[in-house]
Write a structure and sequence with these properties.
By secondary structure, this protein is mostly helical. The protein has helices at about 10-20, 35-55, 65-90, 90-100, 110-150, 175-220, 230-280, 285-315, 315-325, 330-345, 360-384; strands at about 350, 355. Helix content is about 70%, strand content about 0%. It is elongated, with a radius of gyration of 24 Å.
Length: about 375
């Protein structure tokens, strides 16, 4: 059977990140050269520059709650992107090593059935990837269109509130600024979505490894390969150890990203709901903000779903051991199976510094927190 190419499943993510200057070719990391120059220019022009003009504008809108919330909910996501980009660049070597580990024999699916299990997992991941990407780009499209659909283009209104050291109401400065804002938000959206779905894919790969291990344990007596039952079981135990080691390395990359992600997303969803109450229903700006809120919600759901799957699948190991024909095994093999079962009683949980676990329960808590922020803003707005 041909070697399974795990990296082929995320080739689109890698391609998009490479175009954005965030994924050096091959197995390389960042080295002085043209690619680093490209990365620096893109980040300064389309990320840091766009953020800078919005932050400066805070001073001029500090007494306007509607304008402040309208800027903050966008700026929070942009700050989150900066945080993710920093960690991606910082851990690029480790990430590429994690992908390389998947190519080793121990992590390879052994049968067509195991490949089918992986493809089933990937089907759901691809569906979520397309959903988040579509919603995010719909947000970008509505941002471009609403000045024209709302007939405010004649007033030379920009999609995002920001301060510039020149008059944006005059041509061609208005057109140049408009294009810069839209190019910036397109760049930020592409980076954001592809980093998130890359992280979700890594979680999916961990869950798939547990699927492979469980299938190997169930069919221990039928495993293809050299050695007796004892050797095959030792190979499974080594596989389990390597999965746990792989997961710990992933946690190192995920810890701070998840912590900031949960805080920012909960706040951003609450702010976007508040902003929706201030807009004309069914207007282009309304649909723009609705796409934004839904994209963040699906994004958080994606993190929590695949993290939850890792926990569930790691908990299937004891059941897989019980399902194998262990009654006929030698005593030393039974003892090893018992030790493996006892070790697997503690399920694998992906977390943000052990404060928040990636689970569906955490997703519901984030949504409740978002509603609390929304209710608070509604109360403050009503008092004014």
């Amino acid at each position: 059977m041909d070697k399974y190419d795990w990296k082929a499943n995320i080739k689109m993510n890698i391609l998009m990140l490479h175009v954005c200057g965030l994924w050096p070719k091959g197995d390389e990391t960042y080295k002085p050269g043209l690619y680093v120059l490209q990365t620096t220019i893109l980040l300064i022009v389309f990320l840091m520059g766009h953020m800078f003009f919005q932050v400066v504008n805070f001073y001029f809108i500090r007494d306007n709650l509607e304008a402040l919330t309208g800027t903050i909910y966008v700026l929070l996501l942009e700050i989150l992107v900066v945080f993710k980009v920093y960690h991606l660049i910082k851990n690029m070597e480790m990430l590429k090593q994690l992908l390389k580990v998947l190519e080793t024999d121990l992590f390879q699916p052994k049968t067509a059935q195991q490949r089918a299990l992986i493809n089933t997992n990937l089907f759901f991941w691809r569906a979520i990837y397309k959903t988040v990407l579509t919603m995010s780009y719909c947000y970008n499209l509505f941002c471009v269109l609403f000045p024209f659909l709302d007939k405010t283009a004649e007033e030379k209104r920009l999609p995002f509130l920001a301060w510039y050291p020149f008059n944006t109401k005059t041509s061609p400065l208005y057109e140049i600024t408009f294009i810069h804002q839209m190019a910036s938000v397109l760049f930020i959206t592409t980076v954001h979505v592809n980093i998130d779905t890359l992280v979700a894919a890594i979680n999916l790969f961990i869950g798939s490894q547990f699927d492979i291990l469980c299938d190997n344990l169930r069919n221990l007596h039928n495993l293809i390969g050299p050695g007796d039952i004892n050797d095959k079981l030792i190979n499974c135990i080594e596989h389990h150890k390597q999965i746990l080691s792989y997961t710990e390395k992933c946690k190192t990359f995920l810890n701070w990203i998840l912590l900031v992600q949960f805080f920012v997303s909960g706040t951003a969803i609450g702010l976007s709901m508040f902003q929706l109450t201030l807009l004309v229903p069914l207007s282009s700006e309304f649909f723009s903000l609705l796409s934004y809120g839904l994209a963040i919600t699906v994004q958080i759901f994606m993190y929590c779903w695949f993290g939850n799957e890792v926990e569930i699948k790691s908990g299937n190991i004891p059941y897989a051991v019980f399902e194998c024909e262990w009654t006929d095994f030698p005593e030393d093999v039974k003892k090893k199976l018992l030790f493996l079962t006892m070790r697997a009683q503690k399920t694998v949980k992906l977390s943000a510094l052990n404060l928040f676990y990636l689970s569906l329960d955490t997703f519901m808590r984030i949504m409740k927190t978002s509603w609390s922020y929304f209710a608070l803003l509604q109360q403050v707005s009503g008092q004014e």
